[in-house]
Design a protein that fits this description.
By secondary structure, the protein is of the alpha+beta class. The protein has three helices and five strands; from the N terminus they run ααβββαββ. The chain has a single domain (2-133), classed as STM4215-like, CATH 3.30.2000. 28% of the residues lie in helices and 40% in strands. The longest helix has 16 residues, at 2-17. It is elongated. The chain starts with a helix and ends with a strand.
Length: 134
């Protein structure tokens, strides 16, 4: 399942990076697995990822849950909510090409927004579910 998880993450990042409107809204391709030091806001980080076996008696498959985190230092929630909508539009029910697997479906399951007092930034989280076949 780890190979499918990596394929999925790479396809998600490719979809985000190849979306010109999304890149423009973030002021560049600011999509990261690990946040670089001193990174300018806004940006997206890949959060928690969990995979479960979804195999049948005849086919291998896996179910993946992952979170994309949006970060904004703008006053109020407007920017982070707009960025969340752009990211949702780039991924929800889209057909992403995975290198060694087939994406059956990709759906936004839930979202949340909160203010992170430690960072002084708004944090938007999009929680996705994907089903992948070998």
């Amino acid at each position: 399942m780890s190979a499918a998880t990596l394929d999925l993450q790479e396809a998600v990042f490719a979809a985000l990076t190849n979306d010109a409107a999304l890149v423009a809204a973030f002021g560049g391709a600011r999509f990261h697995d690990l946040t670089p030091a001193g990174l300018a806001f806004p940006y997206v980080t890949f959060g928690r990822a969990t995979a479960y076996d979804w195999s049948t008696g005849t086919e291998e498959g896996s179910e993946h849950f992952f979170t994309l985190n949006m970060w904004s230092k703008r006053k109020g929630r407007r920017e982070v909510l707009a960025l969340m909508e752009l990211v949702r539009g780039a991924l929800h029910e889209k057909e992403l090409g995975l290198a060694g697997h087939r994406l059956v479906n990709l759906r936004l399951e839930s979202s949340e927004v909160r203010y992170d007092e430690d960072l002084g930034a708004y944090h938007g989280a999009l929680h996705f579910r994907a089903v992948v076949e070998a």
